[in-house]
Amino acid sequence: MVEIETLADDTSEHEGLLARRKRLQRRQQEIAAHIPRWLPSRSFLVQNLRDGEATILSPSGVVNLAIAAFALLSLFATFFLGSTKYGVFIAIPTGIYTAAWLLYPMVEPSDGSRRAVHVMTKHPYLRQAQLEGSETLFSLSRENSVSKRKSLIADGAMEALLDAAILHESDAAIVARALAVVGTLAKDASTATDLVDDEAVEFILHFMQTHLRRESVQKHSMTALVALLVVTNEGEGKGTADEARARALDANAVVIVCRAMDAHIKVARVQQWGSLLLSHLTDARSGGAEPLHKGGVVQQVVKTLENHATAEPIQQIGVGLLAKCLTANPENPLFRKRVAALKESNPRILELVQEAQTRFPKSPGIQDFGARILHDVALVL
């Protein structure tokens, strides 16, 4: 049997999340290569066999194989030997054990974050451990207090969740919960700064592309990225926002976010957080509205405004985004040409702005941004 190292082994102090992902997945493949292909959940069996002391109702690979053997024997005795008595005798305890294994949680919020992290790190390849552990940490993080965030970080929640997302990156449920907690913990300035340095921006954008059709992954990815951009632009983390923004733009974030918004055009939360994220991706130091023009943001905002006409927050952020794209420099000939082209390809732009102003007359943002758009576009055209 191949020797399995713990996840903490062979790590570099400055290893980024993308490099960490490659290393952990390479190790996972090496483990699987040494296990007979006929064994189910191969990585999970090997890891549990090596762990030795399994948690309550967390069976080792041997016990799982025994359950499968008893179940097959039960079927064989019942249907081929015609002995219902022996079949039932074997099936009842097997069924009870399996039901307990499936229904009894390995960890729950009342156990606390330390226990959740312990279960997740002890059984990194076991889906139930990762799903219940991430659910527990997500539930605890919803308290959203400074003390709770610091407690979760001190207990190793961030590392456990990132490893879970890496080792189960095709599992949308685990990834969504992990990113949700990362977004909450990123409200701590020092944590957000460390995450940006560790390539968390690129890491999250990778999951947005992998799970494009998964609403929960998109929503929590966007909230996590907004948290990184906002927190690192104020207080202790001030200054890191420029790096986070640059990393996002280099990783094609504008296009990725627009694709996600288009894939979930009817989902208000995705539209709101996506629009807010796009707004935070631009400022004077990142080329102003240039990344928005290149990424096709105007066309996406028009779709969003059309599909969520009665949602004031979405309308306000959307009109604000249009103001960034259409009012940057009306005296510039190139800019005037670009605005004219946008107006021609999106004839409802001004109409949508006017509708938003009419529908929300008490919204200062919509009124101010709308007035600026109508004034500057009139000058250009």
Describe the model:
- The chain is mainly alpha-helical.
- Among the domains are: 186-290, no CATH class; 296-381, no CATH class.
- It has 21 helices and no strands.
- It has helices at 17-33, 42-51, 61-79, 84-103, 113-122, 127-141, 146-154, 157-167, 172-185, 189-197, 200-210, 215-231, 240-250, 253-263, 268-280, 290-294, 297-307, 312-326, 333-345, 349-359, 364-380.
- The longest helix is centred in the first third of the chain and has 20 residues, at 84-103.
- The chain starts with 16 loop residues before the first helix and ends with a helix.
**Which stretches are poorly predicted, pLDDT < 50 over at least 5 residues?**
1-12, 39-62
Distance between the termini: 73 Å
What is the strand tally? 0
Structural class category: mainly alpha
Rg of Cα set? 26 Å
The oligomeric state is: single chain
**Net shape:** elongated
- Please describe the biggest sheet, giving its number of strands, its sense, and whether it closes into a barrel: none
Beta-strand residue percentage: under 5%
Order of helices and strands: HHHHHHHHHHHHHHHHHHHHH
Please, what is the average pLDDT?
78
Helix share, percent: over 70%
The number of helical runs is: 21
Keywords:
ARM-like; transmembrane; mainly alpha; 381 residues; 0% strand; transmembrane helix; 71% helix; disordered N terminus
